[in-house]
Amino acid sequence: MPYETILTELSENIFTITINRPEKLNALNTTMIRELVAAFDVADADDAVRAIIVTGAGRAFCAGADLSRGGATFDRAARPDRPPVPNGPDGKPDLSHDSARDGGGRITLRIFHCRKPVIAAVNGPALGIGATMLLPMDARIASEEARFGFVFSQRGIVPEAASSWFLPRLVGIAQALDWCYSGRVFPAAEALAGGLVSRVVPPEELLPAARALARSYTESTAPVSVALIRQMMWRMLGASHPMEAHRIDSKAIFHRGRGADVKEGIMSFLEKRPARFTDTVSADLPDLPWEPEPGYR
């Protein structure tokens, strides 16, 4: 489908999303929020997509929110391009209404629920939402030219996009607070040392490295297994007890144990040949009950 603010390409089962407002350093606007969510919907629904790479056009990954509206940028009441937040029975804005949701959070929660591995190829500055949208991705590779900044304290706002949940889990609370308190912009080397990215490469090696990583996740693996692993690992970050993981493990093993892929995986190993997995995410992914159930304590 045509997009205004992003480009998409499917090649070798890898779906690449390129943020494409280079003249604005790929700053996020309302259209981009909708289009990023839609692109992940497309990727999830297509069994030909085995992995997703997100990168930026030009010299930036995403320089944050588009600030062209000046002081009205984050004032919902002053934004005609956003649906108004209605008042509740008390006459005050109903902040539980869907219209009050943070746009960045719509993106990160959509990525969180994605069924395919997601790799960030950070080609340049990733500031504000450009940094927080990286957090629910599974791997982050940075160009030597990348810069990062959780700059919210310097703009008078707070970290968004559910980053208060994601960031401390990725880098630890002390590092998360240091970056968010100061709001400073830091280089790729510091992002690597702090655990935000897993690898820093020269600019010309960025996309080849991301594609090689994507292939390592997909070439010899069962798509349904990878989809389940992704959801199990991410969701269990918030579990209060290992019994929750045991419950999900047990149900997932039960469902997968009856599938064609597990038989193929075992027989291909015994016969010393490449596996030919046929189960698909669209048809064979079990709908597991992620919320705790009575009786599991």
Folded structure, characterized:
The chain has about 300 residues and is of the alpha/beta class. It folds into two domains: about 5-220, 2-enoyl-CoA Hydratase, Chain A, domain 1 (Alpha-Beta Complex); about 225-285, Lyase 2-enoyl-coa Hydratase, Chain  A, domain 2 (Orthogonal Bundle), CATH 1.10.12. About 40% of the residues lie in helices and about 15% in strands. It has eleven helices and nine strands. The chain has helices at about 30-45, 105-110, 130, 165-170, 175-180, 190-195, 205-220, 225-235, 240-255, 260-270, 280-285; strands spanning about 5-10, 15-20, 50-55, 120, 125, 140-145, 145-150, 185, 200. A six-stranded mixed β-sheet has the order 1-2-3-4-6-9, with helices on both faces. The radius of gyration is 20 Å and the shape is globular.
In the CATH hierarchy, what is the superfamily of the largest domain?
2-enoyl-CoA Hydratase, Chain A, domain 1
Q: Helical content, roughly?
A: 25-40%
Name the CATH architecture of the largest domain.
Alpha-Beta Complex
General shape: globular
Order of helices and strands: EEHEHEEHEEHHEHEHHHHH
Poorly predicted runs = none
Rg is: 20 Å
Question: What labels describe this entry?
Answer:
about 300 residues, three-stranded mixed β-sheet, alpha/beta, single chain, Lyase 2-enoyl-coa Hydratase, Chain  A, domain 2, 2-enoyl-CoA Hydratase, Chain A, domain 1
